[in-house]
Amino acid sequence: MNNSNFVYGSELQGRGYVTETDVAFGCFTTATGVVAFCGALLNFYLIKHVKAFHNAFGFFWAARTVGELGSDFVYAVYTGPITLVQSTSIPPELSIFAYHFAFTFTYIQCIMHWAVSINRLVAVWFPFYYDRIFNKKLCVGVVIGICVASVMVVALYLIFPCNHIGYSPRFHENVFVKCAADLGRNYSLITPTLVRACFSIACAGTGMINLITFSKIAHIRIVTCTLKVSMTFFNPECRRFLFKSSSKVSATYHVRPTEAGTHWVIGA
Questions:
Q1: What pLDDT, on a 0 to 100 scale, did the predictor assign at position 181?
Q2: N or C: which end of the chain has fewer CB within 10 A?
Q3: Is 227 exposed, middle or buried, given 0-12, 13-18 or 19+ CB atoms closer than 10 A?
Q4: pLDDT score, position 246
Q5: pLDDT of residue 247 exceeding 70
Q6: Phi and psi (nearest 5°) for 7?
Q7: Which residue spans traverse the membrane (predicted)?
């Protein structure tokens, strides 16, 4: 492509007409975004009114839900509707901003999964220290730190040029936005690294933490069951009750007449 024919943000434009596939994908994406957004609001309602969530876990889960709300909002009000419209005059900055906005909240949600897993691990392994470790100051600091880190991650797109991503209604996916005709690449250098990092934290990292947590839960269950077996065989009261002799001496009485009178003789 020559520089004379190059149009910045052309990848982010619609095709100018709507196909059946566009309608199906656009409706599905919009509906998914709306349903997920309502589900996130339900999470907030439960966290507020269920007393079991009035702790550090509930606070972290609420912060994770904020991240979910941001990405769901973009699906509901931008990604789905713009697919249904297929406009050819979409400002590239709008599409790029929508991606950055959603990606920031996605990263908040991503890292908060890690924080929630750590919280759960401490609750299972060190229950007596839980309130001391997860005090209000620590919880607020963790959430603020995660939000700042997510913003800084997305800021990398502004620091390193020619790495922007935006949603393409034609292709129904996020695509790389070329900044020059002779760039020599058609992919972002930043996005794969950030996605792999998010995968490592949210999937591999939390999976490993949860595995350690569940192993402790399994250990507690096994120990509890073992103690109940122990109760049967090592408690003297239980042994006497289960293994006492069932043999009983039965006595029969015989009447034996004698010259002097009648005698009662007990015979086995």
A1: 84
A2: C
A3: exposed
A4: 46
A5: no
A6: -125, 115
A7: 23-47, 98-126, 138-160, 193-212
CB 119 within 8 A of CB 56: yes
Distances (CA, A) of 184 to 171, 188, 259: 21, 12, 133
SS3 state at 250: coil
In whole angstroms, what is the distance from residue 54 CA to residue 74 CA? 29
- Residue 75, CB half-sphere, CA atoms under 13 Å: how many? 22
Number of H helices, E strands in the chain: 9, 4
- Taken in order 125, 149, 74, 196, is the CA torsion positive or negative? negative
Which pair of structure tokens corresponds to residue 132? 């001391």
pLDDT in tens, 108-149: 988 898 889 999 899 888 888 888 888 989 999 999 999 999
| C-alpha span between 202 and 10 (Å, rounded) | 33
Q: For domain 10-190, is the CATH number 1.20.1070.10? A: yes
CA-to-CA distance for 54 and 49, rounded, in angstroms? 9
Report the alpha-carbon distance of residue 99 to residue 157 in Å, rounded. Answer: 11
* Token pair belonging to 51: 């007393």
d(CA 221, CA 266): 56
Contact between 26 and 76 under an 8 Å Cβ cutoff? The reply is no
Point out which residues pair with 257 in neighbouring strands: 262
